[in-house]
Amino acid sequence: MSPEAIEQVFGPHLPEGTAPTADNVMEVVTSSFFRQSLTKFSDQLDQNDGTGMLLAQAFGIEYKGEGLTNWLQAMREKKEEEKKR
Questions:
Q1: Which listed residue, of 26, 51, 52, 54, carries a Cα 20 to 30 Å from 61's Cα?
Q2: Does 19 share its domain with 39?
Q3: Are 39 and 5 members of one domain?
């Protein structure tokens, strides 16, 4: 990815004060905090306790079922719909 693309795609999602470079993106996504957070989020969505439905309502996305994969798919579809508008 070009530096401009990295900044556009990842910049808004990096911790405050982190320059949007390829090295910094890799540092963030390979950090123990990121892995733990991702694991906790995934585990919560996999519990089939209605968290997926609550998140779908909160984010205004179509409910695709419980689990991280279903939630991510719904988020991707929403983003694609927004691009078409």
A1: 26
A2: no
A3: no
> Nearest 5°: phi and psi at 51?
-60, -40
Cα–Cα distances in Å, from 40 out to 13, 33, 45, 47?
18, 11, 9, 11
Give per-residue pLDDT as tens, 58-76.
999 999 999 999 999 999 9
Total structural domains within the chain:
2
pTM above 0.70, yes or no: no
Q: Please check whether residue 66 is in contact with residue 52, taking contact to mean a CB–CB distance below 8 angstroms.
A: yes
Q: Is the four-CA dihedral 57, 59, 60, 62 of positive or negative sign? A: negative
Helices (H), the chain: 3-10, 22-29, 32-45, 51-59, 68-84
Task: Assess whether 12 and 50 both reside in one domain.
Answer: no
